[in-house]
Each structure stands twice: as structure tokens, then as C-alpha cells.
Amino acid sequence: MIEPENEIHEEQAAAAAAEDEEEYVMLDLSSISNHIRIPPNAPYVLSGLDTLNPILIIDNNIKLIGEYKETFGTCLVFNESEVDPIDKEQAGPSDPKQTPVKKVNPIASLDKILKFRLFMEAENRDIGADKQANNPP
Fold first, then answer.
1. Residue 11: phi, psi to the nearest 5?
2. How many Cα atoms occupy the beta-carbon half-sphere of 98 within 13 Å?
3. CA gap 28, 117 in Å, rounded
4. Element (DSSP H or E) covering residue 39
5. Model pTM score
């Protein structure tokens, strides 16, 4: 039998683990990439990740609204790094014409994709009207 004090500690530990859990989300900008040009290294603000429709503002003038989509199958995220010099020696003699050797490592798997589209001013007015209708003075 588990004593009540132990149950409390286990619940607290589970709650703390849930808070520390990382979740990766892919930002999908494919639907807007043909319509607008996003400057390289442009500053951005991503807000409302815990809402149904997060907002992404790029370069202080491009406003996008997102919608979460579930992934089909397994969606994996990788990072890329240079191969260590020791690994290069094991690979054999290098050819100067050969492309640099990179190592690919899995980072995480994704459950959600955040697909963005342009946020129109008409939508902004509609959202404001909905808020006013739901919150009369």
C-alpha cells in the first residue's frame, strides 16, 4: 500500500516533470513563401503558442496567423554538425574536391505542425467585433 505522503510526492514529481517537458513544433511558412519575401535574419515575434491561433510578426510588418495541424506518421527533427577530426581520419584520406563531411543527429520527433497564412486586416476587425459581442459594456 502506498502511503498518502508518498502519493503527494509522486504527484508533485509528475507535475514538475510535465512542466520541464520540451515540445517541438515546426513552423510551416510554405503557403506564404510565394507571396511575400521574408528578409534573411529578420527579427520576429511569435506569440500565443498556447492558443489555437498563434501570431507571428516578422520584421515588424508581416503579420501571420497560425493553425496547428497534427503530423501524419513520424516527423523527425535533425541537426547537422561537422565531423570530428578523429572521425575524418577513420574515413580515410580526404579529397580536396570532396564536399565537407557532416554528421546528422536526431533531436526530437514532432507531433504538431504550425501552418501559417497571411493575417488580413478584415480578420482583425472580425476578431475585435467578436470580442465586443461576447463582452458587452
1. -65, -40
2. 9
3. 9
4. none
5. 0.58
